[in-house]
Design a protein that fits this description.
The chain has about 300 residues and is an alpha+beta fold. The chain is about 10% helix and about 25% strand. It has two domains: about 50 residues, no CATH class; about 230 residues, paralog of FGE (formylglycine-generating enzyme) (Alpha-Beta Complex), CATH 3.90.1580.
């Protein structure tokens, strides 16, 4: 039997505290170095910087602001409500509802209480001022739909068995991010398919949402809800059943209002990850908070690696 012995070397690519091990050297040309992992995913480097790479590897290396976790993307197929469909790219979301630091600016400290009594306009402005984006309706739905498909988020331990966990909703007051409810049915953490955990999408405080499905350039609702709109059609069970929370019927017209989602500490069975209501965008009542997101940087050159 004729065999061939080949010497192979592997490298570790680091970006800050993040690392990818077992990368193989494939070749070099014009100062560029190509590396591949066992699955054939590649990175191309130039003097310690990534100039091109497979999306899966770039996500593993990309730095994320403290308090944010990655969320898988989602595709909404064409429908009457979305004639061209809608693709929601993967993104980062704050694990907790936004808090306010001592300097009056956005914080993501779980020891603090949510930033409430803020209207829609000021919530979106605060996100933008901090370099973030106020969560979009399509992003919220991507999280809700993903969470609803995970066994661990149902009281019965299987998708569709029992209720989807509804969060803090049975009275009291707003709770800080590190509070653990005594009542197991008020579980506030939900797990996504990629292992990310998110808190209070199902209760504790209402959250303003920028409507990129029915909304205008300001994120305000512009038309009645179509029966095929993902905003009301994506939930797998009827309103107020199986832990879905409240949502309106097709035809409800909240034009000029902003979307409110999640529920708050007195919402009872109205609370849930699919909860949907509308509020005057200039109203900053008790229990109204917000949440930020970040796009996944598409420029791989922002990732600096150690030289080989």
């Amino acid at each position: 039997m004729q065999i061939e012995l080949t010497r192979e070397e592997s490298f570790t690519v680091r970006a800050g505290a993040k690392a990818i091990h077992g990368m193989r050297h494939i070749g070099e040309w014009n100062g560029l170095v190509e590396l591949q992992d066992a699955a054939g995913l590649m990175l191309i480097l130039n003097e310690g910087q990534i100039v091109k790479g497979s999306a899966e590897l770039l996500q593993l290396l990309r730095p994320v602001s403290a308090g944010f976790v990655p969320v898988p993307g989602m595709v909404f197929p064409p429908s009457k409500a979305l004639p061209n469909g809608l693709t929601v790219p993967a993104f980062y979301v704050a694990q907790h509802a936004t808090t306010q630091g001592a300097d009056g600016k956005i914080s993501h400290d779980p020891a603090l209480y949510p930033w409430v009594n803020i209207n829609f306009y000021k919530a979106m402005e605060a996100c933008n001022a901090a370099g973030y984006i106020g969560i979009r309706e399509s992003q919220w739905l991507a999280i809700a739909a993903n969470a609803a498909q995970q066994d661990c988020n149902w009281t019965g331990g299987k998708v569709g068995e029992g209720d989807l966990f509804q969060g803090i909703r049975n009275g009291g007051c707003a709770r800080s991010g590190n509070y653990v409810p005594a009542n197991e049915t008020e579980r506030r953490w939900l797990m996504l398919s990629n292992g990310s955990k998110v808190c209070d999408f199902n209760g504790n405080v209402f959250q303003w949402v920028f409507d990129d499905i029915q909304g205008d350039e300001r994120g305000l609702i512009t038309k009645p809800f179509d029966a095929e709109s993902p905003s009301i059609a994506l939930a797998p069970y009827p309103s107020e059943q199986k832990g879905m929370g409240y949502r309106p019927s097709a035809g409800r017209d909240w034009s000029g209002y902003a979307l409110v989602r999640g529920g708050f500490w007195y919402s009872d069975d109205y609370a849930g990850v699919f909860y949907l209501y509308g509020g005057r965008p200039d109203y900053g009542g008790v229990g109204l908070g917000f949440r930020c997101t970040l796009p996944m940087d598409s420029d791989p050159r922002s990732l600096v690696t150690a030289k080989l």
